[in-house]
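May I ask for a sample protein chain and its fold as tokens?
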Amino acid sequence: MADNNLMLDIRDLTIHYETDSGVVHAVEGLNLQLGRGESLGFVGETGAGKTTTALGIMRLIPNPPGKIKSGQILFDGEDLLKKSEAEMRRIRGAKIAMIFQDPMTSLNPVMTVDKQIAEMIRLHRNVSEHEALKQAGDMLELVGIRRERMHDYPHQFSGGMKQRVVIAIALACDPELLIADEPTTALDVTIQAQVLELMKKLKQQFSASMILITHDLGIVADICDKVAIMYAGRVVEYGDKRSLYANPLHPYTIGLFRSVPDIDEDVDELPVIPGLMPDPMDLPTGCAFHPRCSMAEECCSRERPEMKELEPGHFVACPVRARMLGQA
């Protein structure tokens, strides 16, 4: 990707949690790129390291026990890991904003919602309190909440409305990058669809790049341009949505797609990936997926696979698949 179109470039990022029981290898040597205006779907099982990666980008890893061991997080060409905490406070909310999983715990219960949005605006823009509150009302209307409700407290809103308030806070200062960490997990299916449609519309309106963390491949298909499949702290497959969905190449990705029900097929039981995610304190040698992989060969237990471009713009970390496609 051309440098002038590259917004986020993560290089060899490693994040550990050092506990009394041992070292949790949450993210290991992660590489990822995101272009301006692009949406990236970040998919993987619970414990794969998706949220830790997002917190790493925001420099919000709890320390202790979390520690960014190595790597670079280049945002607009500048390494966020070299920024001071004061510089990061100016970036968070203004240039990079995050929508967290649970709207119920993301809002201050003793502040009205207009003041919470205004607080973000005043933190990053030189405006009066009156102007900030006016902009807060505008943001609430933008996300589909009537201005008359701006003086209400979070407990007076439903879960879906709370998530709309959180989105309003995240977008209040027109960030370049929006990170959404499973933003619909706590919502029912009907409200999920409304919130996702809202996010898609606002992303286009604000021309922001977006990283959407989710377990749901259907949501990724609807919203995202690029997809990154993560397993045990590493991205194992990365490509544009059309290429990855039409031709998944990594055995783990293939397993994920096979486990999704198809309304056109009448089957008694869905195929599942055997075994469980590995213990992040004791990752397997070589490819972390090899104990669960039906294609695994002897080399898979010894050598850590590197990402290779097996199709234009489609990268896979699997030497067996690379050899099958003549790209070894």
